[in-house]
Amino acid sequence: MSAILEPPFPPASMSRQAARLQVMAFWTVMACLAIAGTLIVLLIAGFLVRESWPLISEAGPLRFLTDAGWWPRDGSFNMSPMILASLLLTLGALVIATPLSLVFATFTCFVAPPWLANGMRVLVEASAAVPTVVYGLWGITVIVPLVNQISPPGSSLLAGMIVVAVMIFPTIAMLSRSALQTVPPGYAQAASALGVSNAQTVLRIVLPAAKHGIVSAMILGAARAIGETMVVLMVCGNIVQVPKSLFEPVRTLTANIALEMPYAMGDHRASLFVAGLVMLILVSALVALGEWVGATGQRSAP
Amino acid sequence: MNTLGSSLPYPRDRLWNGFLWVGSLLVVAVLLWPLLIVVLEGSHALSLEFFTQSPSDAGRSGGILPILVSTLAIVSVSLAAALPLAFAIAVMLTEVCRPDGWIATSMRCSLDVLAGVPSVVFGLFGLSLFCRQLGMGYSIAAGGLTLACMILPTLARALTTALEAAGEQHRVSGAALGLSQPAVLWSVTVPVALPGICAGLILAMTRALAETAVLLFTSGYSDRMPESIMDSGRSISIHIYDLSTNVPGGMQNAYGSALALLLMLTVLSVSVHWATRWMHKHMTGASQR
Q1: Distance from A72 to chain B by nearest Cα, in Å?
Q2: Which residues in chain B are contacts of A98 at CB distance < 8 A?
Q3: Where are the alpha helices (DSSP H) in chain B?
Q4: Of B139, B154, B138, which is closest to residue B203 (Cα–Cα)?
Q5: Highest mean pLDDT among A44-53, A291-300, B228-237, B270-279
Q6: What is the separation of C-alpha B253 from the centre of its chain, rounded to a whole number of angstroms?
Q7: B25 shares contact with chain A (CB less than 8 Å)
Q8: How many CA atoms lie within 13 A of B245 on its CB side?
């Protein structure tokens, strides 16, 4: 408490004007640093646009969907197989992770004894902090050989979907759980009093009441899945093609950036920045949409 | 919240509860699976030598000492760069801007967008700005600065919460004693918020440690001992990626490194937990006095 009696800043011996100058300097420095931190987003967008502009302005943005194929050395930049792979992978991961998340959320909210619900919550939170490269390592050594036993080569769209589903599960599960917790307990109690079975109560009353929060959780999970790089780089096989089945290898947009950036030059390099720009816009749009859906739900909540 | 499950009036609900139990145990099993594999396979590789030797034979044998040093250097650079920015943002949000004014809103919005940017996009940005434009090349400094951009939202949010939790009351009492606003900030608010600030720093550190894609083409691949922060250095997550995909026979040490990484993250997370708890106790105690 002695610090309050003798403020070190500004020292008591200072003249009033010097002290005021020092205070001014402090706020100026703080404001500049804060503005710098706020502008990083624009800096990122600016650099991506600057690096990709030569290629976009040359033949228009549609060329990335209509070129003959992905042969960057011959100036042909068709990204559609990779965009399709990214979307399929995200969709598959959502299809696997969402039902499991809802089971987890319902179980921990309504059925599990408190100690078990608490333990599971800690496990899911810890899983959210596991590095994606560790999930990739698990994918390579466990999931890929398993998929290989069903249908070679193993490194495939399906393997990617499974591992990415496990990776995004904590996000969807925790957000869905908090969505279920915002449903007023009176709903469930009233249903019980009317003799509605537990299953009907959850499926017909609680889940519909929490639907905004759940959809928001799914969209935020999708944003994580589509931006994921390491897992897909390690388990999807990295072949540029439109997959004919779940067991065929694919290359996503993010994996393509990571694979080709170290040696790309000229237009090839610019095309990878275009892919980065597409990812930035796509993920920002998804996050904004997810937040918006969540906020709508909160506003309409009773 | 345990409003439904306590009694089972209908036979059909026994089926429903059974379904939920089985589904949840399946979830627990799937979540534990990667962790158990890493612990089981990795424990063969861990030994004292693993932490004190350099990698040899492309990482198949030897340890991870230079990789730990590089990782530490990258994380330190990123924290050192992100801390002043995050602190300034937190001070602006808590001390200066009106909470619902346009400046505070746009700052928060910018941080939210930054938090959503995919890590590989940060990598592209870092390559373009730090490695090429500023001429740092593939170096620990370039990787650390790129990582700083990535952890900035996490850190800024944690510091804002810490400063907010330090409380209006201290601020008002300080002002009543005739202290200037920066003086109150330095000698009252920051010391009170220090545990929260430390927890935020550790949280940001776990994010930085776990990241791979940002460093893939900014900090370089060299597994030598780095001589300065302008040297190329390989982080532990890149080491795991490289050993498991590019080096046949590197799996054992990949698992060893993964276990080392998980252990570090566990220690850090547990310490955040305790710091937060201690802070809670300390703060409520302080308000009662």
Answers
A1: 18
A2: none
A3: 11-45, 48-52, 65-91, 102-116, 119-126, 140-165, 168-176, 181-184, 190-210, 236-245, 251-288
A4: B154
A5: A44-53
A6: 24
A7: no
A8: 24
Q: pLDDT tens across A141-200, in order? A: 999 999 999 988 888 999 999 999 999 999 999 999 999 998 888 888 898 888 888 888
Q: How many domains does chain B have?
A: 1
What per-residue confidence (pLDDT) applies to A4? 46
The model's pLDDT over A226-272, given as tens digits with 9 standing for 90+, comes to: 999 999 999 998 889 898 889 999 999 999 999 998 888 888 899 99
Interface test with A, best of B17, B19, B30, B31 (most A CBs within 10 A): B31
User: What CA–CA distance (Å, rounded) separates B236 from B71?
Assistant: 6
> Could you tell me the two tokens for A39?
């502008």
Could you tell me the two tokens for B229? 């922060």
ipTM field: 0.88
Is residue B229 predicted with pLDDT exceeding 60? yes
Q: Are B202 and B268 in contact (CB under 8 A)?
A: yes
For A269, the token pair is 């390099």
Can you say how many angstroms the Cα of residue B124 is from the centroid of all Cα atoms in its chain? Answer: 20
DSSP A76: E
Q: Tell me, yes or no, whether B211 lies in a domain.
A: yes
* Structural domains in chain A, sorted by start: 2-60 (no CATH), 80-300 (1.10.3720.10)
Asked if residue B156 is part of any domain, the answer here is yes
Q: Please report, for the domain that includes residue B231, its CATH number.
A: 1.10.3720.10
Name the DSSP letter for residue B215.
G
B36 located within any domain: no
Please tell me chain A's helix, strand, coil percentages from 3-state DSSP, rounded to the nearest 5. 75, 0, 20
Q: Report angle CA A60, A64, A66 to the nearest 5 degrees.
A: 95
Tell me how far apart the alpha carbons of residues B49 and B41 are, in angstroms, rounded to a whole number. 17
Segments forming the whole domain that contains residue B193:
67-236
Q: How far is B287 from chain A (nearest CA, A)?
A: 15
The contacts of residue A67 (CB under 8 Å, 6+ apart) are A76, A77, A78
CB contact under 8 Å between A202 and B32, yes or no, is no
CA–CA separation, B99 vs B109, rounded Å? 13
Phi and psi at B110, nearest 5°, equal -60, -40
CB B243 within 8 A of CB B251: yes
Angle at B65 between CA B63 and CA B71, to 5 degrees: 125
Give the pLDDT band (50/70/90) at residue A5.
very low
Q: Do A123 and B114 touch (CB under 8 A)?
A: no
Subunit contact B111:A38, Cβ cutoff 8 A: yes
Contacting residues for A62 by C-beta, under 8 A, at least 6 apart? none
